[in-house]
Amino acid sequence: MSGLSMGTVYFSALEFFGVWLYLLVALAAGWIILAILALRAAPPADRGKPRFIALLAGIAAALLTALLLPLWTDASFRHIAVLADYVALIGGAVGIGTAVGVALLPVLWLAGRTRS
User: Which long-range contacts link 73-80 to residues 24+ away (Cβ below 8 Å)?
Assistant: First the structure.
């Protein structure tokens, strides 16, 4: 019986990420703390600039991911032949770009606040 339990998820993530899993968990915990601090405090008066920077960083991350993902998997663009490959590549790139933008926005809001 193969069920999706927390143990299965943990050991699958540990096998996939290796020892980096603990660093990623610590990084996620730190980001959650920063996000809570940013959401508790009012966003800066100039909301457009942090959003624009986060948007540009997300677009840059998406483009770099779309270009470099085949190289990271020891493939090349000639291996991407069918529509499903392109959809997976573009979907992964959009996901990474969105994650970068969402992760940067609270940090940029905190950095843009005036200190009193």
Answer: none
Predicted TM-score of the model (pTM): 0.61
Place of tokens 């970068």: 100
Could you read off the pLDDT of 41-63 as tens digits, one per residue?
766 667 778 888 888 999 999 99
Quickly list DSSP for 18-41: TTHHHHHHHHHHHHHHHHHHHHHS
Residue 110 · residue 37 · CB < 8 Å = yes
pLDDT on residue 44: 64
Q: Give counts: helices (H), strands (E), the chain.
A: 4, 0
3-state secondary structure of 5: coil
